[in-house]
Write a structure and sequence with these properties.
This protein has 267 residues and is of the alpha/beta class. It has two domains: 204 residues, NAD(P)-binding Rossmann-like Domain (Rossmann fold, 3-Layer(aba) Sandwich); 38 residues, no CATH class. The chain is built from eight helices and seven strands. The protein has a seven-stranded parallel sheet, with helices on both faces. Strand 4, helix 4 and strand 5 form a beta-alpha-beta unit. The two termini are 34 Å apart.
Amino acid sequence: MDVYDLTGRTALVTGGAQGLGAAMAEALVRAGAAVVVGDVDEEAGRAEVEALRKRGGTAGFVPLDVTDDASWESAVAAAVAELGGLDVVVNNAGIEISGLVVDLDPGEVRRMLDVNVLGVALGLKHAFRAMRPGGAAGRGGAVVNISSVAATIPFPGIAGYAATKSAVDRLTRVAALESGKLGYGVRVNCLYPGLVPTRMGAGLAQDMETLGLWPSAQAAVQDVVARTPLGRLGDATDMADAVVFLASDAARFITGAGLPVDGGMGM
């Protein structure tokens, strides 16, 4: 049996309408999983689901505001009802707002805390409730949280974002311990993606120029590449394939871990 084969498994990907989330949903479908895309952007989410179906995948969409407890409850219930179970939750939804510490905006930091930290915490809560024995799905599974290389190295201009992604790392490890001690049968791990030229990644590079930290967005990107032993930016498929690994039986004895997918930048 192929330990990377997810045939018969069901997955919910948050922020799955575009960027890394869309790539993760696509990789899970290619591995054989049925996938529900959860996102606040209903138009983009439904378009992504249609694209997955055109490729022969089993996919659905649920509206999901990851900062809202009731929205999570409804989304997980809908995913279980549509797919007949829930084996994998990918807590990918996140936002990045750049800024210097000296100019810190409390409102912007609160927004990142709500989406990046509370959103993951609620995702863990509802994944556990559905997957644990006696839950709506009740057969265990895997949760993959998306942190960032920013949680492993200092990088200027993103203090608030880095703090929230460091919190994702801690949430991952505490949740993994609780799941094990309470017999939930749910593995919990996280990824530390490097810089990927998605819309968010391109915006971050431009912010570095705007903040005066690099002379241009291109110079900022070149500096990141220079700091990366593998000598390139990441690709969305690099991150997506790592999600499939952590969701699969190839990672059956891995929990409470953080996997760098950053070309070595975070060493």
